[in-house]
Each structure stands twice: as structure tokens, then as C-alpha cells.
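In response to the reviewer comment on reproducibility (Comment 2.3), we provide here a single inverse folding case reported in full, input and output, so that an independent group could reproduce the run without further information from us. The C-alpha cells appear first.
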């Protein structure tokens, strides 16, 4: 039976980050872009927790706790901005928001 090592976590983290980056580059809907950014943030969190776990140091896990706290605030502000833009423009597509003049 094989054990799950650090490289396994880092591969999953890299795949998640790549998927998120691909979503940010290819998607045109603001909500999809925002979700892809959150996937990228969670991929970085996974790498931090993996390094922290395998180095037997809690500093990485404490940092992840603060990152998740900031991400929760970011979600609230980001979704509020997206809703406000939708109310003004009636669209969440990036092409429709190219001009920020009201």
C-alpha cells in the first residue's frame, strides 16, 4: 500500500490552480471568473497546508486560517460589486462591461 506524500498534494494543488487559471482566462461571465479565482486561492491554501503538515510546523496552517478569513470578506465585497454591476448593466459578461462609464 502506498502512502500519500507531499508530491501528491502538490500535484493536486497545481492541477486545481491550473484549472482556476484556465477558467479565469477562458470564461467571459464574471461569476465564473470569480469562482475560478476562488479555486486558485484554495489551491494555494492546499499547498500551504501540505507544506505545513509535512514540515510539522503550524505556521502554514495559521496563515491559511487568515487567508480563509480574508477570502470570506472578499466574497462578500466581490459579490456585492457583481450584483451592483448587474443592476446597472443587466449583464454579467465581461464584453458588456468593457466601458465602465454609466
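Designed residues, in position order:
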Amino acid at each position: 500500500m502506498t502512502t500519500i506524500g507531499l508530491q501528491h498534494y502538490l500535484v493536486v494543488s497545481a492541477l486545481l490552480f491550473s484549472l482556476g487559471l484556465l477558467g479565469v482566462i477562458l470564461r467571459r461571465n464574471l461569476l465564473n471568473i470569480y469562482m475560478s479565482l476562488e479555486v486558485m486561492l484554495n489551491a494555494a491554501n492546499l499547498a500551504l497546508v501540505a507544506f505545513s503538515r509535512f514540515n510539522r510546523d503550524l505556521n502554514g496552517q495559521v496563515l491559511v486560517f487568515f487567508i480563509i478569513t480574508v477570502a470570506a470578506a472578499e466574497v462578500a465585497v466581490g459579490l456585492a460589486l457583481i450584483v451592483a454591476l448587474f443592476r446597472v448593466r443587466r449583464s454579467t459578461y465581461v464584453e458588456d462591461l468593457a466601458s465602465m462609464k454609466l
